[in-house]
Amino acid sequence: MINYILRRIAYAIPILIGVNLITFTLFFVVNSPENMARMHLGMKHVTPEAIDKWKQDHGYDKPLLLNSAVPGSAKVIDTIFFEKSVKLFAFDFGDSDDGRNIRHDIRQRMWASLAIAIPVLIVGLLINITFALLVAFFRATYIDLWGVVLCVVMMSISGMFYIIGGQYLISKLLHLVPISGYDTGVEAAKFLILPVIVGVIGGIGAGVRWYRTIFLEEMGKDYVRTARAKGLSEVRVLFRHVLKNGMIPILTGVVVVLPTLFMGSLITESFFGIPGLGSYTIDAINSQDFAIVRAMVFLGSVLYIVGLILTDISYTLVDPRIRLG
Length: 325
Description:
Blueprint: H1 2-30, H2 33-41, H3 48-57, H4 74-77, H5 80-84, H6 102-137, H7 142-156, H8 159-173, H9 189-219, H10 222-229, H11 234-257, H12 266-272, H13 277-286, H14 290-318, H15 320-324
Helix pairs in contact: 1-14, 2-3, 6-7, 6-9, 7-9, 8-9, 9-11, 10-11, 11-14, 12-13, 13-14
């Protein structure tokens, strides 16, 4: 299994390099440092001296890939590519365009993102599996039919509707929780209840339908027919055999999502005023802070690749055919 994991890690390295090269191209070739300076200083009445000073202050005054004006290895090191992209592999995100340390901001904000993402994942998983088992148990009945219809309807509704509707109903009409904001410690719970409820409800449609498909596929296999032939009740077959074997694809689906929990939700955090990594990214895009956006794109790529590797590892743990192969 060690060789299998090492192969997956080796496959991930060129992918991460490719993502980094594409990101660099988008930021510094399509959108030049001069354009970045103009965006921050204002498109009108900007002098060349002001542009040169902004580039020098933010480290954008160097050549992109090769600095022919210096000797030796400095030709590669003293470049924008090395300063802004290569250092990302050491998780040296540097400073934002307004002077804040990006790594410090990420460490501070990741906990707010996790405070929403982890409850949404756990509660949503329990609710989705429960309803999926219920619908699968009553397969080919009106409960199954209307359950699927309801799931399709919920999937078709935009996530913005759940956010705005939840804020209007729970906060504005019922006054149960604050409509937005955030606090530290125990007081943060009252600000997290509504985003968690909205996140869980918004994922029920897709989650229940996916898990229902998994359980129905398992119920049509030979081991289920054998269990029924032995006289086991339908409830025992469903919970002891179908649920157990259906957890394999569910487990891998959950594992691949775990690293992305750190990134937060862009829309949810912005609407509810949660100071997580999602709102951090949105604020950076609005303020055109390319240093933060670049760091978050790279971090998201790393976490996604980690999720894929963890998924492969989980397959080797639950499926001996992959481990032995």
